[in-house]
Amino acid sequence: MSKLQPGDAAPDFTLIDADDNEVSLESFRGKRVILYFYPAAMTPGCTKQACDFRDNLGALTAQGFVVLGVSKDKPAKLRQFRERDALTFPLLSDTGLDVHKAYGAYGEKTNYGKTIMGVIRSTFVIDPDGKVEKALYNVKATGHVARLTKELGIS
């Protein structure tokens, strides 16, 4: 799995959201997109990260950003996650992991000292022309959104 670098073209995709609607990256051309990959809906770390994005969404959208969360969960579980935690941005289902792999967000990782295959918690900032601005791999769920907004100059 090769990792994306700033300046690379962001791989296009069309995925199903929590309401079974198709969402494609191409439809967000002209906007800056924060695309983040997380291991599993409704787990403690993923909930913390999603709620942090939710709580900062106003500041992000005011600066022209769109937030999209991607996991391998099915749409029904994404609906439960969204409703349970009042998430106000699209959650996308990539059950086949094709988009995860295209972004380098699935592969070997270390978990409790063992090397396993799995989702690599990752965040990408994509510019209005569809190019990768930032590619952040192996991010920590707690504090990630605060660090990202600081890096992006958003308070």
Automatic annotation (TrEMBL):
The keyword Disulfide bond applies. One of its GO terms (molecular function) is thioredoxin peroxidase activity. Transmembrane segments: none annotated. Belongs to the peroxiredoxin family. BCP/PrxQ subfamily. Pfam families: AhpC-TSA (PF00578). The keyword Transmembrane does not apply. It is an enzyme of class 1 (oxidoreductase). This is thioredoxin-dependent peroxiredoxin. Its EC number is 1.11.1.24. The lineage of its organism: Bacteria, Bacillati, Actinomycetota, Actinomycetes, Streptosporangiales. GO terms for biological process: cell redox homeostasis; cellular response to oxidative stress. It catalyses: a hydroperoxide + [thioredoxin]-dithiol = an alcohol + [thioredoxin]-disulfide + H2O. Thiol-specific peroxidase that catalyzes the reduction of hydrogen peroxide and organic hydroperoxides to water and alcohols, respectively. Plays a role in cell protection against oxidative stress by detoxifying peroxides and as sensor of hydrogen peroxide-mediated signaling events. Keywords: Antioxidant, Disulfide bond, Oxidoreductase, Peroxidase, Redox-active center. InterPro entries: AhpC/TSA, Peroxiredoxin_AhpC-typ, Peroxiredoxin_BCP/PrxQ, Thioredoxin-like_sf, Thioredoxin_domain. Monomer. Residues 4-155 form the Thioredoxin domain. The active site is at C46 (cysteine sulfenic acid (-soh) intermediate). GO terms for cellular component: cytoplasm.
